[in-house]
Amino acid sequence: MAAQTRPTQRAEKANAAKEPKKADEKSSRRSPYLKYLAVAVALIAVIAAFALGTGMLSGVSFSSFKQNFGSAKRIAVVVYYYNASVYNMETICSTDLVEVLASHRSPSTIDFFTIDNGTCTYIPNGIGHPANVLTNSSAMCLNTANSEPSISMSYSPSNYSRITPYHLGIYGNSEYFRSCPIAVDIS
Questions:
Q1: Model pLDDT, residue 184
Q2: 66 with 163: CB under 8 angstroms?
Q3: For a tag on the chain, would you pick the N or C end, based on fewer CB atoms within 10 A?
Q4: 89 and 171: one domain?
Q5: Do β-strands 110-116 and 75-81 pair in parallel, antiparallel, or remain unpaired?
Q6: Can you give the residue range of the structural domain that contains 45?
Q7: 39 and 15 in one domain?
Q8: What is the pLDDT of residues 67-109, one digit of tens each?
Q9: Are residues 66 and 20 located together in one domain of the fold?
Q10: One domain, residues 42 and 70
Q11: Is 94 exposed, middle or buried (0-12, 13-18, 19+ CB in 10 A)?
């Protein structure tokens, strides 16, 4: 009897070993689809987090931003310069914007940053103190600008903006900066 039990046990072990392989085959057939699904879900989550973080899906109106911007104790204007051809247009528009802002509030409450190739030029303690112009890393200036309501201006081949409750990013082409509608809209 012991001899008969051994072949039966061997057969059972062989059958048991085959069954997990079938299950593994099925799961390996499904796993590429599950991997693609997991990657797609992760990608959607990253895009949604970016969109919410940048305000693209926030639904904030310009008037809401303008109210927060206008009632803040300090505000910032950040201008990104990338090359000499847009420098003049952005300078004219940012100057118009700062003049309008200074007509409604104390100039010492307006931080003005120009960023060019990772370097930031600014006037500490607001534009009301123009005798002292400093240069620092763009990261330092952006930390300050992000801690208070701000308007940033940057050249782009197409015109668009990103609005959050406390930050307005303006991306404009040469026509936009020539006409500078933000200087009128913010007043």
A1: 93
A2: no
A3: N
A4: yes
A5: parallel
A6: 1-54
A7: yes
A8: 999 999 999 999 998 877 778 889 999 999 999 999 999 999 9
A9: no
A10: no
A11: buried
Count structural domains, the chain. 2
Give 127's DSSP letter: T
- Buried (b) or exposed (e) across 115-144, using 16+ Cβ within 10 A? beeeebbbbeebbeeeeeeeeeebeebbeb
Tokens read off for 9 = 């046990």
The C-alpha R_g of the chain, in whole angstroms, comes to 30
Global pTM value: 0.68
- The neighbour count for residue 82, using CB atoms within 10 Å, is 13
Ranges of the chain whose pLDDT falls below 70: 1-58, 130
**Is there a contact between 35 and 139 (Cβ–Cβ < 8 Å)?**
no
* Residue pointed to by tokens 């026509």: 175
Helix, strand or coil for residue 50? helix
User: Is there a single domain that holds both residue 43 and residue 71?
Assistant: no
